[in-house]
Amino acid sequence: MDIKTFVFPAIATIGALLVYFGLGIGVGVARVKYKISPPQTTGNEDFERVYRAHQNTLEQIVIFLPSLWLFSIYVNPNWGAILGVAWIVGRILYAWGYYVEASKRAPGNAIASLATLALIFGTLFNLVRGLLFAN
After folding, report:
1. Domain boundaries, the chain
2. Nearest to 12 by CA among 74, 71, 52, 59
3. Considering the domain 3-123 in this protein, what is its CATH number?
């Protein structure tokens, strides 16, 4: 395969990393705004929502990135990139909703989670199919 085959998944990876980086900057800004000095992570509900949006994205990116690349290698890099962009949009909507009110994070979480599940199960399906029906 040509290295250009994986340009779009690479761009999606960089996009996901930029979202995570941006959420980290948001935590720093919120620390100043709400006067929550490190190592504190509690004391103001508005800060706690910003902090949890960042931490939850960290928890999810660990699952997302390998699944994005496995899908891109074993299934289709273009579809992997599309699902990667869906994950990014979902995480942005998740954080935005969470910043407003904890209950408003669900739609973004659903989008990102469905994208991750599609990556995982799409890869698994293709791998098992390849093993069962290999020439």
Report:
1. 3-123
2. 71
3. 1.20.120.550
